[in-house]
Structure formats: structure tokens, C-alpha cells
């Protein structure tokens, strides 16, 4: 019987094929109490299982580092560090010695407690680290019990991989010829699984909750990475519908690639730069393959995560140099650290914050810890001679923070001059506008920077006073709210007055209907997921600037987001969107 599961589409594409269920769950875990004379033996068994797990991860890292790129090697190094850390070891050995549990039981209880701790974090990235703990626990348990690890690389024929979760060690072994798509019970857009799926361009849906309890190996399934749906054993009519959808999607993608080397220019000659948002330099190949005009947002914080020590200036320099050289002569905007103090607990002694989203994060964190900020700025400056790099400060709320950040930048420049280390003296410096105060004082800020980039994800969240990852208020997250559109107009007006470019790097930029409004408002650059670029390019090349302006003007005249949504869906989508995307 046909059944549909709804999850989160993290890598686009429509795939129809047979399922291969990765069943790693060990159902019968031995649980018994041990005697005093058995404690030492159990601890030794545990240490041996950890050592074997470390050896396995090192082997996988070495075997696949070339295929997945050095940027992904940190994922394995982080797992190895977690195994070497006291976090797991101390919990398990305490249960063995004080509660006299056998090792398998002690491990299972300890992993469960750690997962509960990580689940309690408000931060989405930290919350998803519970899956890392869970995967490590499963690996240690399997080694304790002598179970063989089923490898994705052992697949004999192409299949859609179904799993509760897919560990980085598994994702690294995926080959597009065999793994044509995958779907998991858990995960989110920022999980390692999602990042690797996008990098490898394998259609994927995560967060399906209980898909593994329903699907069996050999079942015919459909994975729609665009909509986030997985259909199990579709009936013949549904199968034919999705077969046509797949053909249409693949045909559209093929036709879109014809636009790769053409500019994103309206029919009446208005040029819009379409750039990409990325986390890893490995993604630059996809950026170039999709005809981007550069990198509009390079999230440098991914170099800092999942490790015990902060990256050195030299390590950062090499990373940024790679970005500069690979994308050259196109530009790359490097956003300085956009992390909160709570994410540096493994490096620094920071108290837990009640509301991290509005606490010591991004530029506030950097100004509070100038030695970290200074190291990053020096690395970016040194790398700037190898390409066309730009610096962007996140979460600037006013002129004071901008002045302080620029003062540190100038100090770094002076240090490098004295050390006779070359850098681009004229490196452009801009800010991400994602706080309402910055949007309202954009006229003041525009006098002090070389460019603006609007971060709509946070701008919407802060302007409407909602937590976009809180399910109970997520419905209030509204990109079409009249206040948001007026803030964007205000930012664009200020930028034009000072003759500086203004871009946008939130989710709005990759949506065809939203991008139409944004072009009409005067946005010069839209930065998005690489996979959305050609779609938006086709839209822009199919309209005139005057058409876009008329849409934007009419939208600004409406009082509610509901009126705006109705206007877009009932008039614009029919008249323009269908013609552009489907023809």
C-alpha cells in the first residue's frame, strides 16, 4: 500500500528506485551486573572497543580524504577527538565501577544521557550534534559485540539508501553511481549529512521521523528532494505522475545549463549578479558549474566547528587562499565569524546564555574576543593577494560596532605592513544587515562601507520577534510582511544614495517570486544555494526591469502579507512565473 512521508528536502532532485535499508540497530543489548573482580576486565573491553573505533575512523578518513576533499576531513577528526575525549569515557567507566553495569549496558545508558543533554540545546547546530554522539555509540557498541559494519561502498547495484541516520563515515563512502538518493529518520539542513549531500549533489530528504520502521530493502520508493517527500510503494498512477515530474525536472535542469555562461540580465539590460552561499571550499566546483558570478557568502565559521582547538592563522590563511584561487577572477565575500560564545565551550569558558540568538554572537563575540577576530582578519588579509576577496562583518547593529571592527582591521593591516607580508590594501569591507537598527540607520552605515548584504533570515526573525526554529511561532515567520519589504526598500535607497552595491543572501533570494520583487526594489546581487542560480537566471532574463518595478511598487502599496501573497499567486505566478519556469 502506498504511503507518503514528509521531511526536509536538503538536496534537490527527484529519484525513483529500490530501497536499501541500512539496519544498524542492535536490538538485544546484554544488560547484567558484574562482580568486583570483573570491573577491570570490562573497562579494558571498553578501551579496546574505543581504540578499534578510532582505528576504523582513521582508516576511512585516509581512504576517502581525496574523494571528499580536505574540508570534510575535519568531520572525521572531530569524531576521533570525541572518542578520545573524557566525555564518553568518564561516563561509561563510572557506571562500570560505581553501578557495576556491564560495558554494553553502561555505554547505552551513557549515550542516552548525552543525547538528552544535546537535545536540550536551543541552538540548532548544537542540537544536531546529538546524532554524532549516537553514531559513535553505535560504532563502539558494534565493536564490543563483534558486529560487522555494513558499508555503503559495498552496494552491488544502484539504490536509494534508507537509514535512521547516516554517519559522516558512511556519507564519505557514497558514490553517485550506486547511491542515487537517500532518506533518513533524523537530521536537519545544517547536519553533516545534509552538507555532504549537497556537496555530492545526491538528492536527499531528512527528518522523516520513522521511515525506517516502514521501508524494507527492495521496496520501490520515490525521493523528492525538492518538496521533502518520500513515497513508499507508490501505486501505478502515482508512479507515472512522478516519472513525468522526474523527466520534466531533469529536462528543465538540462535546458537551464544552457544559460550557464550567459549573464543574469533583464530583457531591457539591467544586470543582476547571482552568487552562491557556501560553507566549504569543496563546494566551489558546484558554484562554477551553475554559472555563478562569485561567492556572495562564505560561512567561515565551519572551519571552527567540531574541534578541540581554534584554527591557527596559518590554517585559516590556507583555507581562504584556496577559496580565493579557486574562484578567481570572480569575487568571494568572506563573512567573519558568525558564532555565539556557547559554540566555543570546548575552547573557552563561556557561561550558558538564556537567549543565544540575541546574546554574545557574531561581531559581538569577535569584539569581546579580539584575539580570535584579529587572527581571522590577518588570515583573510594575507589571502587577499591570491584573488578577489571581500570582508563582511555579520550582525552589525550600528556605527559603534562597525567603527570598533574597522579599528581592529586597521591594526591588523599595520602589523602586516611591519612584518612585510603582502595584502590587498584596498580590500572591500561590507556589512550584513540583519538587525532592524542597521536597516533603519542604513543611510549612516552606507557612508562607512563598500557594500551591503541583507541577511533576510535573521532580519525577518528579529523584526517580527520570533524564533524561526520554534514550531509554535514558526507560522509568523513571514518574508512578505510589509514591514520587511519596507526595510529592504530603505536599505536599497540608502545604498543607492552612497553609490554602493546592495546584495541579499537570505532564503528569499533563491525563490523566483521573491526574487522578482527584490529585483524591482533595486537589489544588485542575489546570493543563494548554487542549485537555485540557473532557475533565477532564467527568470531574470525573461523579464524587464520595468515589469519587476511595477510588481514591487504594487506589493508595497498593499497592507497585509496575505494581500501580497494573493497578488503574487493569482496574478504574477500565472502571468509570468509559469511561463518562465515551465517553458
From TrEMBL:
Name of this chain's protein: Phosphoenolpyruvate-protein phosphotransferase
EC number, UniProt record: 2.7.3.9
Function (record text): General (non sugar-specific) component of the phosphoenolpyruvate-dependent sugar phosphotransferase system (sugar PTS). This major carbohydrate active-transport system catalyzes the phosphorylation of incoming sugar substrates concomitantly with their translocation across the cell membrane. Enzyme I transfers the phosphoryl group from phosphoenolpyruvate (PEP) to the phosphoryl carrier protein (HPr).
Residues bound to phosphoenolpyruvate: 299, 335, 457-458, 468
Cofactor field: Mg(2+)
Transmembrane segments: none
Organism from which the protein derives: Candidatus Schekmanbacteria bacterium RBG_16_38_11
Main location: cytoplasm
Entry keyword annotation includes ATP-binding: no
One term of GO molecular function: phosphoenolpyruvate-protein phosphotransferase activity
